[in-house]
Amino acid sequence: MIIIMKRQAPAEEIQHVIAEIEKNEGLKPVPLYGIERTVIAVIGDERIIDERHIASLPGVSNVMPVLRPYKLASRETKHESTIVKIRNVEIGGTKVVVMAGPCSVEDEEQIDTAARGVKAAGSTILRGGAFKPRTTPYSFQGHGRNAVLMLEAAAKKHDMVSVSEIMDVRDVEFMAQHIDILQIGARNMQNFDLLKECGKANKPVLLKRGLSATIKEFLLAAEYILLQGNQNVILCERGIRTFEDETRNTLCIATVPIIKSLSHLPIIVDPSHGTGKIALIPPMARASIAAGADGIMVEVHPNPAVALCDADQALTIKNFEDLMEDIRPIVGAMKRTI
Ligand code: PEP
Ligand code: MN
What is d(CA 158, CA 137) in angstroms, rounded to the nearest whole number? Predict the structure, then answer.
């Protein structure tokens, strides 16, 4: 931590700041007296002191943390990129992964047809919601545990990895028995109990960015999972809420290189929820991969006209096949494969 004192801060104020730092065992304040102002470098693990307290002391102009607030998620702590491995699928390696499937699992035939279609086009991870976080309680809420079993069966039949959202800590054990990747949705990004319970589960976690979360908050949410000993966290940018209303959310592609520089965790992008518009999914998928994303997640339905959830943004299987062809040159240009 670097503490920059105000110009002409009196010696008593500088001494007061030094004394406050010295109260913490293991921290050493090193004052650097300049002509115009004094800077105090703090040596040691700065996370043990409250940055806001130091910033509020008289004479302090600015406090700059050096170590990131998230320790385990930070690239400062672990330089090499994390690769999450699930059987023959790797997320965060040289391949770009494509997760695809319906917003929600509706019946056996729907999820089976979706799985067959997306697998044939090159997807390795089958998505499908069983517990749906809907804005209104009157909307379809998902088929729950039955849907989990339908997704599991379709993924097994088509030799795919499965991913599905978990909303309740009471479902962790059940989900972990039947699903390969536990998804924590945008609305639950700061459901700290859920983060902790998924951190204890022996399954990778796909953590989606909260609707109004900053990147720091996003990484701190990941930190909750990592802190429980679960190293297999995959981040997902899915857009945030802004004043723009042309798109369902504002998809922030810059998150990808920002996360890549701050963290060793893999990051994928969801252009379906990120834009809410079918026409915008291919260009945003291309942009995400060009920005360095380790994968994409898209919603695909065999018959969007009858979809029970997010019909407006569902790609048909043909649309999905076209999307796969569309992203191939970008994947190649990034020296990656699908
Ligand atoms: C989803 O992927 O089904 C979903 C609900 O996404 P999000 O949490 O990003 O809104
Ligand atoms: Mn959806």
Answer: 33
